[in-house]
Amino acid sequence: MESVSVSNDQAYLQFETTAGFTYQPQRTADVETRCWWDAGDRLLATSSRTSVPLPAANGLGFFRVLEFTNAVFWHDWAYDYQQPRLADWGLGQAEEAYSHVDRDYDWFIDQADTGPASGNNCGPSSVTMAIHWHDRAFTGTAEEARDWSSSWRGTGWWYTTDIINYLNLHAVPNVTSAFTGSTQLERLLQEGRLVILCMSTAYITRNLVAEQRIGRFYSYDSGHFLVVKGARRVSGRLLFEVYDPNTWRARYADGTPKGRNRHFLAAELAQSIERWWNYLIVVSRPAGPLAASRWLQPVDPATIPAMWGN
User: Fold this and answer.
1) In this structure, what DSSP letter does residue 284 have?
2) Domain ranges of the chain
3) What is the pLDDT of residues 157-208, one digit of tens each?
4) pLDDT in tens, 52-74
5) Is the pTM of this model over 0.90?
6) Among candidates 88, 101, 73, 104, which has minimal Cα distance to 234?
7) How do 158-159 and 43-44 pair as beta strands?
8) Phi, psi (rounded to 5 degrees) for 11
9) Residues whose CB falls within 8 Å of the CB of residue 255, separated by 6 or more in sequence, listed in order
10) Under 8 Å between Cβ of 123 and 149
11) 3-state DSSP helix/strand/coil percent for the chain, to nearest 5?
12) CATH fold of 111-309, please?
């Protein structure tokens, strides 16, 4: 049950809660709007009823309260709950399954903001995202990763060996695995692992529809590093959700970076891996060891060719 009260010109949203559960109020401008926006901080309830102040700008509209059974929840609920927009995003009409390994804080990096070598910093950006995903306390930047490699890479491309060595430098458990197909990638994500790819964007269809969130939104079509952090099955198609650092401040109308939660068709992504560097760099679950998995096909990075990404 929800209600709004006003005291000393301050509006409060009141709702029933369960101690130990997490809650987040959200608002929308009108009942027809399909996208709910965060109206307040997430909170851990300590009693059977909770009252939270509403900012003046959010005092009008319709409200709902999300309830979670523990203190852990994903970073961007406004995004996760926009299923009615799947068609608008070009993904399909009906979602059959969705798994992801998101975190409860922002770990996306746009390589445009990574210093003088930003044009070649997809590798430093991707590995920094992966380390921050694995370790919330990590404060390193992609520019610092570039500085680490500058004595032998200068401002040029990073190679897969640089990614692996930088993960090892920061004691992040990882394994290089042969790529066996889209099912393998989906299962690794379902096990809670993050995957760094060195792939060719040439095999990802370019999509210039401004508000759609599928396909390549830029002209670059060669070797590239990015991270895979989710899988969706929508209208019978498997799509992979990625954090693509090659964003260069491109935004959707709602201000979301276009490289954040971009979707690639599974068949296209598989081709982009197989025809460039047919391996995966798999990072362990946050704050945990890299457990064994039947979906991992480990290889020694020293025995396979290294490949670059730009």
Assistant:
1) P
2) 2-73, 111-309
3) 999 999 999 999 999 999 999 999 999 999 999 999 999 999 999 999 999 9
4) 877 554 456 677 787 765 544 44
5) no
6) 88
7) unpaired
8) -85, 140
9) none
10) no
11) 25, 30, 45
12) Cathepsin B; Chain A (3.90.70)
